[in-house]
Amino acid sequence: MTSVCPRAIVAVVTPTPPDQSFASDNAAGAHPEVIEALRAANVGGALPYGRDPWTTRSAERFRALFDADVEVLYTYGGTGANVVALQCMLAPHDAVICPTSAHLNVDECGAPERFTGAKLIDVPSSDGKLSPGTVRALLQPSHDEHHVTPRVLAISQPTELGTLYTLDEIGELAGLAHEHGLLLYVDGARIANAVAALGCSVRELTYGAGVDVLTFGGTKNGLLYGEAVVLLRPELARRARFARKQAGQLASKMRFIAAQFDVLLEDDLWLASAANANDMARRLASRLAEVPQVEIIRPVEVNSVFARLPAPLVAELQSWSFFWDWDLNDGLVRWMTSFATSDQDVTRFADGVRYFANRYSPGTSGS
Fold this sequence. Notes:
367 residues, 7-stranded mixed sheet
């Protein structure tokens, strides 16, 4: 009797999704040291509204970091921080010049214009950056009271497109702003990633380059919640505390924001966390560069990877491990890394992209 061997059945197993999401750096949890700092701050009582040891100590850490007598105001989130910062600089008849892609222009539901009363003048830019030439063209003298008056140049460092201003570029914008009686504002929700990437100090990148006001991000760099508005010119702080209160950003139990910044600034945890995020983004881009269906559209400078993929492939990947579309019309997506992203996360995500890319072929639905 002849035995017949059954045909071998090979099971195709979908790769395991990464533990950490690549949707955004604010999808990560809080850093373990931040959680421990919150636990410690929760022992006993403390006076409210910033009259506590954590707020005092963390503010001193900021002054040491900038090597200047800066004013620091804590807020709950990034939109609130932008509103508070701009209210310190603007009158309702003023205007803010910013790139079209700026977060305060497209991602804050009109909050800056509603709560400051000022107008945003958005400037198209292919790389997310303001250029001196474009700005200069908008600084013509206004005819009379029929026109708003530009008062602030607002940039993001890094930009929403993952690009970086050099120290010289910031210095040139600051010089142009000050020459025309304007202020330079930096949305620094990811300022730590910029400092880590450029290898300079935060003082060199801001105070030394002529920046007047910035936000110093915490939520996207390991905090549970919280941002800091840093006023580099003392005279701008006159209205700051009133602006924060009116904006609904004055925390009663401020020690729980301050304690997080206290540990973040201690021993440069903020910088190490950002450096890890940047490194993981570079590794991810490197591992996906050879996948034919994936086009990395620009060099990775910080912790974001922008790529162009076929729409069916994007849909399958998002069902497996979610991330955001960036531009549906152009097939662009954005992958973000964080302080918590590990090399295993990068490997798993890259394996998943390859797996679904191999299943995809033009003219099919991706099955």
